User: What shape does this take?
Amino acid sequence: MKSIKPILFIVVLLLAADSYATASGQATAVKRLSPDALVADLYRVHNRKRSPFFQTRSRALLYKYFEKSLADTIWKDAVSSKGEVGALDGDPLYDAQDMEIKKFTIGKPSYESGKAKVTVTFENLGQPKSFVFALVNGRTGWRINNIEYGEGRSLRGYLKG
Assistant: This one.
């Protein structure tokens, strides 16, 4: 019985130390995604019907993927449209209202001046599409600053208009 007390004391001490390290953030590091992994994760979540677009429950979900000013603009559009069509009248990840997506690929990022660009290509209803995600690297890692659809159209442009 005497040998159990020191072992029990050591176990309790180890558990307390682990709890303290976890609470202070030392044991759990935040995983920072590469630009292409962030874009891939956004599409994965979006396609599972947990899209950050159009929802008014979690602003944090927008901050997970988008740079703060863009996230705030998306949030404002979702809240002010009150369930109706707002500035975004289609799916912003496919720039379309109707979708039949095939041959979807996410390219490797290119880097310049602390920014990254990731090209996404696919066919929608038989038409080839190519978008460029512009990302910035901040305190919380890579975040999407804009989506460029081509022909002068962009996510920020849609939200301004």
